[in-house]
Structure to design on (194 residues):
């Protein structure tokens, strides 16, 4: 009888340890973390098109074991996503610093000048981001309703974890906001003064 109690106690202990391990793994696999990368970013108003290009350095956080797939950037009131791309470090490293956004016929021409050699079709979301991998997220925003824009309002980014669950995350980095600088939207004629 005493031997059975010892076996039961050992079984309970193994069960508890297994549950703790599963809990830890589920936190890292099922809840990926998206963080601001090296803190770099840019925001440009494309006057003739009523559009904004926002770029931010991002990183799959330490808890994102196995990585995740970034599938979309959600719209915010007053702005719709016209395109979103994830640039690997090698493509982002070739970025040209200051490029006058207004001198291009289209936003895609602007992006091609800013990131020479970039394959926009190959970088479009959805894209997989590996564990602790850094990349640049670029979002092309259509400004649709200036009255609805909130300066600095962040979009949510849709991620899919290894188990296939969809999660929404936002970055604490206002440069991705379509109305990062409402004053510039007014100065460029994209939006009227409030």
């Amino acid at each position: 009888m005493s031997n059975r109690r010892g076996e039961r106690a050992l079984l309970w202990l193994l069960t508890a340890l297994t549950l703790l391990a599963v809990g830890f793994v589920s936190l890292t696999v099922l809840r990926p973390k998206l963080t601001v990368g090296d803190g770099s970013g840019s925001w440009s108003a494309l006057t003739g098109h009523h559009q904004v290009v926002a770029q931010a350095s991002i990183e799959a956080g330490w808890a994102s074991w196995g990585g995740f797939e970034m599938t979309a950037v959600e719209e915010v009131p007053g702005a719709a996503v016209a395109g979103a791309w994830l640039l690997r470090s090698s493509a982002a490293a070739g970025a040209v610093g200051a490029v006058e956004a207004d001198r291009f016929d289209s936003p895609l021409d602007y992006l091609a000048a800013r990131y020479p050699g970039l394959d926009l079709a190959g970088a479009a979301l959805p894209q997989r981001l590996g564990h602790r991998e850094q990349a640049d997220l670029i979002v092309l925003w259509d400004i649709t309703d200036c009255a609805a824009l909130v300066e600095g309002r962040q979009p949510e980014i849709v991620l899919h974890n290894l188990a296939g669950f969809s999660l929404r995350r936002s970055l604490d980095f206002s440069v991705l906001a379509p109305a990062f600088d409402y004053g510039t939207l007014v100065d460029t004629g994209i939006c009227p003064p409030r």
